[in-house]
């Protein structure tokens, strides 16, 4: 592989065919890092992890442009120009900074997950340097290891309350956006991740050897194909509807996208008029937000429900556990790498106590 690129702006195309971001150009812009010393460390971290395949481009991009960005904003306020001199006190001050910073996008304080990811980005770079560039980081331990352990643990089992599920299903009956309508049905039925949904292929449904149908898809997070799994008839019908809706678009799609289920003609923006896969932002942010507000779907407090695609996955797992399904079966359905992963998410769920 070529040597590390020059300059502060790198354009790297994802060439891993098993990645849900295959073919996407990632534009890394390191110019926001004012310290040349820290910038060189971060560039090396990104390039070496990408070169040996330790981390995907999308993961590295998120770390650098969202999470580590917060540390640089903090570092600039107190004139930190080197990672080598960092102390545990600096880490404490950074955590306080994360607690009190207002997001420019939401105009609200950072949530716990954002705070955790921002600190973990700093940890990842420090830990990597301890092995590969030890002279550029502190020689003593600066993290306690429990900065965010246990905080908001209930989010790990964040299922959708029954009354909200009822509101969603009622709203789906009159939903006019076929991608959203049938996409939600697929998420409810399978518990797949949104990235896998948006990369689902038109040949994902196969007849079962005995009766009914099975569904197959690529689990992009683990870079492996999920074994054929029995699927409900409503999910089969939803996929058939989407195949019908997108049939006339396939001749205009790029060759790599012709068999992707969730393709559409982009109505506005730089891709206007083109036929391409639906983005996660469009489906899971823009459409979800509109769906919730258009249908006045609210939580027990009377606020608009904060719906995320991953909650359908949590809800399916919680439903199965509450009905007495064996944890190993849940693991297989959700595609976790090991039963211990499933237990970590669902071991505390004995009965669903829904608002």
Layout: helices, strands, pairs:
Layout: E1 9-13, E2 25-29, H1 36-52, H2 57-77, H3 88-100, H4 112-132, H5 162-172, H6 178-190, H7 194-197, E3 205-207, E4 213-215, E5 218-219, E6 224-225, E7 229-231, H8 233-246, E8 263-265, E9 275-277, H9 280-294, H10 310-322, H11 327-334, H12 339-346
Antiparallel strand pairs: 1-2, 3-4, 4-7, 5-6, 8-9
Provide the succession of SSEs.
EEHHHHHHHEEEEEHEEHHHH
Biggest sheet layout: 3 strands, antiparallel
Strand proportion, as a percent range, falls in: 5-15%
Adjacency order of strands in the biggest sheet: 3-4-7
Computed Rg: 22 Å
Q: How many E strands? A: 9
The helix tally amounts to 12
What is the arithmetic mean of pLDDT?
86
Poorly predicted runs are 150-157, 350-355
Ends apart, CA distance between termini:
54 Å
Shape designation: globular
Oligomer: single chain
Structural write-up:
The chain has helices spanning 36-52, 57-77, 88-100, 112-132, 162-172, 178-190, 194-197, 233-246, 280-294, 310-322, 327-334, 339-346, and strands at 9-13, 25-29, 205-207, 213-215, 218-219, 224-225, 229-231, 263-265, 275-277. By secondary structure, it is mainly alpha-helical. Strands 3-4-7 form a three-stranded antiparallel sheet. Helix 2 (57-77) packs across helix 4 (112-132) and helix 11 (327-334) packs across helix 12 (339-346). The N and C termini lie far apart (54 Å).
């Amino acid at each position: 592989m070529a040597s590390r690129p020059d300059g502060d702006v790198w354009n790297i195309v994802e060439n891993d065919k098993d990645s849900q971001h295959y073919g996407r150009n990632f534009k890394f812009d390191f110019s926001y890092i004012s310290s040349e010393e820290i910038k060189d460390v971060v560039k090396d971290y990104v390039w070496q992890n990408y070169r040996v395949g330790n981390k995907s481009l999308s993961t590295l991009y998120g770390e650098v442009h969202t999470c580590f960005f917060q540390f640089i904003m903090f570092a600039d306020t107190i004139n930190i120009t080197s990672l080598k001199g960092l102390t545990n006190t600096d880490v404490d001050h950074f955590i306080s900074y994360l607690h009190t910073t207002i997001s420019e996008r939401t105009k609200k304080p950072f949530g716990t997950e954002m705070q955790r990811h921002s600190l973990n980005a700093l940890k990842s770079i420090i830990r990597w340097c301890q092995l590969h560039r030890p002279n550029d980081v502190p020689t003593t331990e600066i993290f306690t290891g429990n900065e965010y352990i246990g905080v908001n643990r209930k989010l790990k089992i964040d299922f959708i309350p029954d009354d909200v599920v009822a509101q969603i299903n009622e709203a789906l009956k009159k939903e006019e956006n076929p991608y959203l309508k049938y996409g939600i049905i697929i998420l409810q039925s399978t518990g797949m991740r949104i990235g896998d949904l948006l990369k689902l292929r038109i040949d994902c449904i196969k007849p079962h050897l005995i009766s009914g149908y099975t569904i197959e898809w690529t689990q992009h997070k683990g870079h492996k194909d999920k074994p054929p799994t029995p699927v409900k008839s409503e999910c089969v019908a939803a996929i058939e509807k989407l195949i019908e809706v997108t049939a006339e678009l396939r001749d205009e799609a790029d060759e790599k996208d012709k068999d992707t289920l969730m393709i559409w003609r982009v109505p506005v923006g730089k891709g206007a008029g083109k036929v391409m896969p639906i983005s996660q932002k469009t489906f899971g942010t823009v459409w979800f937000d509109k769906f919730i507000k258009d249908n006045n779907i609210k939580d027990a407090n009377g606020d608009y429900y904060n719906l995320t695609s991953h909650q359908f996955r949590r809800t399916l797992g919680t439903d199965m556990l509450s009905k007495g399904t064996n944890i190993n079966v849940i693991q297989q359905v959700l595609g976790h790498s090991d039963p211990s992963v499933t237990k970590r998410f669902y071991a505390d769920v004995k009965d669903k106590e829904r608002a």
